[in-house]
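Collaborator request, handled under Task 6.
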Amino acid sequence: MLTSTKMIKRLFDITFSFLGLIFLLPVFIVISFLIKFDSAGPVFYRGIRVGQQNRHFKIYKFRTMITSAEKVGGPSTANDDRRVTHCGRYLRKYKFDELPQLINVFKGEMSFVGPRPEVPQYVGLLAKKERTAILSVRPGITDYASLWNSDEGSVLAGSPNPEKTYLEKIRPRKIKLQLKYVRHHSLLIDIKIILKTLKTVLLSLRGSRTQ
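Structure tokens returned to the collaborator:
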């Protein structure tokens, strides 16, 4: 039963990530032009993340920061971070920067639903049991933690030390929610999380139109 569930989930990931990439191709092209017009550097950001069974992979995101961002700051990013480009602020606000992760889903490095993949630095801070559990499943584009706190940047904004704020105010709750998903995940739960995520994104877009 467990194997068949995994196969169905993988088939879902392959099918809808492929369809998503085809359907969103015009959006990818427009965003790519905006990024290149706004600042020097590549269209995509490909940072190292830790995936299932501790396998490292490069995550795909639209670049939202200056090219030297990792040299002048840590992995946590506040909304008022000076490293974020003008175009990047809008991409991050409406989660458009996450769209290229459909490539990771199609390749099998990620799933639509699963614990958000972290940088090796943060994975190294996990307790052994937490690390074993969280890395037992494919990381995802969205999960319980994404629904709980869909805008980490706003929480970190104004903090004199975003890394410390992230580790103290955000990360502990994220770990608990990631463990909750690992222990109780199912296809039905995945569908519910996806629908709630879409609702959150659509409400955010709708709110921007009325401002």
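The cover message to the collaborator said: "DSSP finds eleven helices and six strands in the chain. The two ends are 49 Å apart (CA to CA). Please let us know whether this matches your experimental observations."
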